[in-house]
Amino acid sequence: MTPDDDPHPIEPEPPLPSDCCNSGCPICVHDLYTEQLQHYREQLAAWKARHPGSQ
Question: Which of 50, 39, 40 is nearest to 10 (CA)?
Answer without folding.
Answer: 40
